[in-house]
Write a structure and sequence with these properties.
The protein is mainly beta and 156 residues long. It is built from two helices and twelve strands, in the order αββββββββββββα. Strands 1, 3, 4, 7, 8, 9, 10 and 11 form an eight-stranded antiparallel sheet that branches. The mean pLDDT is 90.
């Protein structure tokens, strides 16, 4: 065994009393977690949220697939730690406060910086699903504000 592998083996032996103490992978099977629907207080139209993972002691991040039916969208909101969106299907829209509406498509990745007011959702004639990944600050992941008006949603 080379010196590097020997050193790693000794470290593993010294750090963990037995194999039972070693950390192990966790697998959450697809479909094991119940889907929820976005509250009419924070969303316009039908929005399904499929949770994927929650924060743990090692990583302060959560993730979910969020599917917006055509025309459905979030209210204006901010994220204290920011949020990353990966569009996995369809065509969507997003807007940062005071800026033009932007179209997002499958494969696009959107970074929503901490504290930046924005909304996102499906285009009028296409559903859109994105993977949303974010973390919390003092237990808060999102701060909701007012609903997006029809004029704001349709401004392009």
């Amino acid at each position: 065994m080379n010196k590097t592998l020997c050193g790693l083996a000794m470290c593993a032996t010294a750090c963990f009393a037995s194999a039972a103490d070693l950390p192990t992978q966790q697998i959450t099977r697809a479909g094991e977690q119940a889907s929820t629907f976005g509250s009419a207080e924070y969303f316009t139209g039908r929005v399904r949220v499929d949770p994927l993972f929650t924060p743990n002691a090692s990583i302060n991040a959560s993730g979910a697939y969020v599917t917006f039916e055509p025309g459905a969208h979030s209210a204006w909101h901010t994220h204290p730690a920011g949020q990353r969106l990966v569009v996995t299907a369809g065509i969507g829209l997003t807007q940062e406060w005071g800026k033009p509406v932007k179209t997002i498509r499958q494969g696009d990745v959107v970074w929503c910086p901490p504290g930046v007011k924005h909304w996102h959702g499906a285009a009028p004639h296409s559903a859109m699903t994105h993977l949303a990944v974010g973390s919390s600050v003092n237990g808060v992941t999102v701060n909701w504000t007012e609903k997006v008006t029809d004029e704001e949603y349709n401004a392009r």
